[in-house]
Amino acid sequence: MEKSLAIALPTCSNRNEDIRIGYILEALALQSSSDFYDSLELFIWDEGAVPITTDRWVQLALELLVRRGHKPIYMRRGPSRGVAVARRSLIDAIPAAHDRILFIDDDLIPAPDSLNALLAEASRLNTYGFLQGSKVELDASRTYYNDINSLTEESTDAILKPLYFGDAAFLLIKRDALRHVKWDIVTRFSEEGLPGEDVAMTLMIADREPCFGVPAAVGYHMSLAKPRWRWEVPSDILQFELLKEVVSAQTLERALPHLAKYVGLGRKSGDEDDVPLHSSGNGGFAP
φ and ψ at 5, to 5 degrees? Predict the structure, then answer.
């Protein structure tokens, strides 16, 4: 058993009312006991104009973590250079002794036994690049367009689901798999409101390692009144243009089926590896 589990938590709040990370810290403090780790080592990278430590709930949650034997490590940095740079900086800050890193976003509440569910599958698998938990939207009225996250519903399903895209909101990455990531491409996603760094990062990994979704590991997403980003067609086209030289056509087609349909990415019939594709989207694609 690894003594501690490394958790990478990037956060960036420009208004006091946008600070949500206190919920996440409390949920992590209240995780079920586990056979796979004895403590959590939380690496918190804060680039927001408003430090999260100004929030009283965050202060209480950090104290609760310490009292329960966990180790929060708070890093205050600025100005923000985008979440892609923050993720890479977090990876660099986590000691090499950690052979796996759990990324959790600052607005994703993990259910009580969700970490255990992820790690149980990780211990069972001989080889994997990343494992993703389910990301359930708490606001039922929120609509996503071109959503390539296929794990968006609550489930107790114990069957692993092959994935090509991994949502970094709730993602366990094997550290060795990060050798496949070309950070000069990933860190181009640095403009405010432009998502996609996790698409670039995880497709590079999934192109070379088997990756899976763990439906039983559930996290709940708290959307802000004013979304921090929008994922629309221009972002998808940018993904394609940046990744087409470093990720195979097969992986791009499986991860971005809606895009393949419109840009003619599909393989020629008769190719030796021409196999049926599974859908990696949630059925709500918009052209």
Answer: -105, 125
Q: Are 38 and 3 in contact (CB under 8 A)?
A: yes
pLDDT at 268: 45
Is 53 strand, coil or helix?
A: helix
Q: Which is nearest to 89 in space by CA: 41, 47, 132?
A: 47
Q: Are 7 and 104 in contact (CB under 8 A)?
A: yes
H helices within the chain, ranges in order? 21-29, 56-67, 83-93, 114-124, 183-186, 197-206, 233-243, 249-255, 257-263
Q: Are the C-beta atoms of 180 and 146 separated by less than 8 Å?
A: no
Element (H, E) at 82: none
Mean pLDDT over all residues of the chain? 84
pLDDT, one tens digit per residue, over 217-247 is 999 998 776 655 555 555 667 777 888 889 9
Q: Which amino acid is at 189?
A: F
Q: Are strands 37-46 and 2-11 parallel, antiparallel or unpaired?
A: parallel
- Asked whether 285 and 257 are in contact (CB, 8 A), the reply is yes
pLDDT at 261 over 90: no
- Going by DSSP bridges, is the β-strand pair 37-46/212-221 parallel, antiparallel, or unpaired? unpaired
Whether 83 contacts 12, CB under 8 Å: yes
* Type of residue numbered 173: I
The most distant pair of C-alpha atoms in the chain lies apart, rounded to whole Å, by 62
Domains and CATH numbers, the chain: 2-230 (3.90.550.10)
Rounded Cα distance between 262 and 265, Å, is: 8
CA angle, 131 as apex, 212 and 62 as ends, to 5°?
Answer: 160
Whether the Cβ atoms of residue 253 and residue 167 lie closer than 8 Å to each other = no
Q: Distance between CA 117 and CA 105 in Å, rounded?
A: 18
